[in-house]
Amino acid sequence: xxxxxxxxxxxxxxxxxxxxxxxxxRSITDEKTGLIEKLIAGMILQWGDKxxxxxxxxxxxxxxxxxxxxxxxxxLLDCIPEVVYGQIKKSKTFAALISSxxxxxxxxxxxxxxxxxxxxLAQGKKMKGAKSMKLIEKLFDSLEHLKNPIVFSxxxxxxxxxxxxxxxHSENYVIEVCAxxxxxxxxxxxxxxxxxxxxxxxxxxxxxxxxDALESPLTKETxxxxxxxxxxxxxxxxxxxxxxxxxxxxxxxxxIKLIVQCPQYLTFRHKWEDMFTLMNDMxxxxxxxxxxxxxxxxILEAMRVAGPMPGEKPEAEGEEVPEGDPAEGAPGEPxxxxxxxxxxxxxxxx
Length: 350
Known about the structure:
By secondary structure, this protein is an all-alpha fold. The protein is 58% helix and 0% strand. The longest helix is centred in the middle third of the chain and has 18 residues, at 149-166. The N and C termini lie far apart (96 Å).
């Protein structure tokens, strides 16, 4: 390990031998040599039921060190990413190892790489063995301590990925923690940013998280700030028309409907008329599939229930349609004003 660290340090300094050392690195980390696999195996041995060697794990993680650190501290993933990325994602136990490590180590002891590596492993892959309440709480705890943008983003991505795996389950631990943890505000703010500037490969996970937050009785009225709901709605309406994948479009519409039903949103009804126009246009668009048209109609119905619709005059509170025989006068109908008193003289008040 020391020789490997020395080579990485020399590569960081540059010079004539830097490229030569990179070639050497590729040769010793090739999949056939099994060095990466051995590094992971060594970490597993040092993090078992009987042994919890925190320093060994930290040193090993620093060899992988993702490119969020200073250039002088370049590591394997800076120098030969194509070699290392391909191998660590094949490991069936690496994610569970790092998850266990994050659960046990105090927040102050993290270097950041734990989260970036685990977030990478979570991309396009189920978080098997990495969905405990303890892990989720530790991820939330870490948000206020690790402010590096890449590390911070990785932690949020992990939280969203775990929640996505739990979506539809009777117990979504992530939403439960969101309801009570003070650092939930960081998740909320970052989620709105991610939806506003979406990653096409991850957007469904972001949308599903927002849907879960607005559906759960624990968070539907407390998780999102009013201004952030408005920003999110603008992004949804903006991107909806450009979304070609039907399943993604349905997620957009599902979230829009929940926003329409959200008490915080209904106070100001941001983009109400724009949304009404867009939904009407989409329901008459013959190029759209039946599911999309039905979802747009459901949003219009939710708007009607919330009322009033654009162009409609709001009814006075408590106003009811009178009942009874018109010939006899409806109950509560005011007495007719005598013709002589029907119009007040000019200059006088009624």
